[in-house]
Amino acid sequence: MRSRVPVGVLAPTAAALTLLSACHTVPAGRAATATVAASAVSTATATTGDVARQVDIGGGRKIYLHCRGSGSPTVVLVSGLHDSSDTWSITDTRPPVPKAPAVFPGVAEFTRVCTYDRPGTVRYTEPPALTARSTPVTGTRSLPDMVHDLDTVLTSGQVPGPYLLVGHSFGGMITRLYAQQHPERTSGLVFVDSFGTNMKPFFGTDWAAYLRLLNRPGTPFDDDPAFEKVDIDGAVAAVDRAGPLPKVPLAVVSKTEPFAAPAGTPKPLLTRLERAWPRVQQALVDLAPQTPHLLATGSDHYVQVHDPDLTISAIGLVLGRTPHG
């Protein structure tokens, strides 16, 4: 079982980083390299080259956007709850899985790829910190607001469509609603161990406790007003109310190992989560016919970190099935 970097807590999305520095699970050199690369600002155009910059999305807010490579469709990588874009640029592998490339540079080898920092998300630096690259937002956010931010940063950042959307964990809810709202701009979807809309019935009376853990996963930032928090019930309702998914190719990549959890986590809650998760993943597979379901054997929730080559392959598979691939 892998539960090193990042350390997910009970949640399909929570980035519990209290152990990151103490355990030295991200080598300082790797973290520093990722930070330098991500903070470099390029003068390249929006459609070619390495572009890393803050995009003005209006209302006095800016969002950090990073793009690399060339080709169409553009792959858009969307991180899980509390995670900055760093999770697409780091790896923590063991043989025979190669250490490099990470997903972001790996996808850039065959098409244009972009990712961004949502406000209040965690940078995988030493020590960990909330991103300073996007304007902070306080309060609990709605899924439609998060999708609006994604659409605005892509539009204002002049990122060419159509988009092949890749969502990890709660990021899968963001990409799913985006595809429902903007079918004409969506060419494919990859769900990387993604959150689903069918989870609540599996938790019974433990659902409220699970939601609290999602928004307060035990990081040093839980009490920071800028730390990302989301209305999960409202997010599920928003997806259920939206129109159907466009008829585009899909792929689902799922973990096989348990979620990492902090000491003191109620065992009944963990049991419910692990029992629910295969059903959640199957429901994603059932969204479209002939959807491949790839199991990341030996990986925990952060499949893109532990099995970057498998994640890249799933993206390449879906890209090959799109009219633009």
Q: Approximately what portion of the residues adopt beta-strand conformation?
A: 15-25%
The spatial strand order of the largest sheet comes to: 1-2-4-3-7-8-9-10
Identify low-pLDDT runs. Answer: 1-45
Number of strands: 10
**Cα-atom Rg, whole angstroms?**
18 Å
Overall body shape: globular
Number of helices: 11
Give the integer mean of the pLDDT values: 87
Order of helices and strands, N to C? HHEEEHEEEHEHEHHHEHEHH
Cα-to-Cα separation, first versus last residue: 35 Å
Structural class by sheet pairing and helices = alpha/beta
Tell me about the largest β-sheet: 8 strands, mixed
What is the helix content? 25-40%
Summary?
The chain is of the alpha/beta class and 325 residues long. Helix content is 33%, strand content 16%.
Task: Present the secondary structure layout.
Blueprint: H1 20-23, H2 28-39, E1 51-58, E2 61-68, E3 74-78, H3 103-108, E4 113-116, E5 122-123, E6 129-130, H4 143-156, E7 163-168, H5 171-181, E8 186-192, H6 200-203, H7 207-215, H8 232-241, E9 250-255, H9 267-285, E10 293-296, H10 303-306, H11 308-321
Helix pairs in contact: 4-5, 5-8
Give a verbal description of the structure:
The chain is α/β, with parallel strands linked by helices and 325 residues long. It is 33% helix and 16% strand. Helix 9 (267-285) links the parallel strand 9 and strand 10 (293-296). Helix 4 packs across helix 5. It is globular.
